[in-house]
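tool_call: predict_structure(chain=1)
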Amino acid sequence: QVQLVESGGGLVQAGGSLRLSCAASGSIFSINRMGWYRQSPGKQRELVASISTGGNTNYPDSVKGRFTISRDNAKNTVYLQMDSLKPEDTAAYYCNMLIVARADKLFKTYWGQGTQVTVSS
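tool_result:
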């Protein structure tokens, strides 16, 4: 069984920074794409950042230049460094990984439990 556990959310003032972490554990064969999504009340979940196995990253314009995604393959962990935070960044943040488990050797998408980020003005 594979689990993703997130940490690092909290309350911060506008202009501040936070770093989110998400570690995968369990019977893992390999991890492909990793990413972060966010969802605020009444809105759809949206992609915040993604990173491929080769380290190629992708960001929407709303966070480009402020957020940085990175991964540590040895630790099965993905990070999201968030700088120059704005009140509109307030949301629940979810990590997402495309993982091949040892049990079935099939690609499946796994989600973290979510961590709340609140940016005050």
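agent: The first strand starts at residue 2 and ends at 7. Proceeding to next step.
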